[in-house]
Amino acid sequence: MLAAVWAQDQNGLIGKNQTLPWHLPNDLKYFKKMTVGKTIVMGRKTFEGMGSRPLPNRQTIILTRNVNYHHPGVKVMHSVEEILALSKQQEEPLMIVGGSTVYSDFLPYVDCLYRTVIEETFEGDAYFPTINWDDWQLVERTDGLVDEKNKYAHRFETYERK
């Protein structure tokens, strides 16, 4: 099974220079809650944008076409097919965590979406791929708390494929 988790602004923006264009601690906590104890899959550029550090308490898979790429503490794979085969062997879903190209590659195979929508617009260069929402059913929506640390209105949404 595969699931995707991401945060976006009102226009679908997800990144700027391989990093998040906003600071929203509530979303970071949500991301941690959704991914701890699971295997996360990300592209090389996303991994490097996060400081080239594996996240604690998660197995990290880096998807890259560079067959010579290696990094301690992560597993490197080179094709969507390799990761799809692995997902069939796992009890827990593999969590697709970015970037744009990786989301595009796996969206046809994902069973569940965990999306944070930040009700603002930001500047950036990476967008989540277009989704046919007719294929998805909203099963949960929770408004995030706005406070001095979390300055932007936001909501957490869970969708399942119909």
Automatic annotation (TrEMBL):
Metabolic or biological pathway: Cofactor biosynthesis; tetrahydrofolate biosynthesis; 5,6,7,8-tetrahydrofolate from 7,8-dihydrofolate: step 1/1
Entry EC number(s): 1.5.1.3
Gene3D superfamilies tied to this protein: Dihydrofolate Reductase, subunit A (3.40.430.10)
EC primary class: oxidoreductase
Keywords in alphabetical order: NADP, One-carbon metabolism, Oxidoreductase
InterPro entries named in the record: DHFR, DHFR-like_dom_sf, DHFR_CS, DHFR_dom
Nucleotide-binding found in the keyword field: no
A GO-annotated cellular component: cytosol
Domain DHFR: 1-161
Gene Ontology molecular function terms on file: dihydrofolate reductase activity; NADP+ binding
Catalytic reaction(s) noted: (6S)-5,6,7,8-tetrahydrofolate + NADP(+) = 7,8-dihydrofolate + NADPH + H(+)
NADP keyword on record: yes
SUPFAM superfamilies with a match to the protein in the record: Dihydrofolate reductase-like
Gene Ontology terms: biological process: dihydrofolate metabolic process; folic acid metabolic process; one-carbon metabolic process; tetrahydrofolate biosynthetic process
Stated role: Key enzyme in folate metabolism. Catalyzes an essential reaction for de novo glycine and purine synthesis, and for DNA precursor synthesis.
Family per similarity comment: Belongs to the dihydrofolate reductase family.
Protein name: Dihydrofolate reductase
The species this protein was found in: Enterococcus alcedinis
Name of the gene encoding the protein in the UniProt record: dfrA
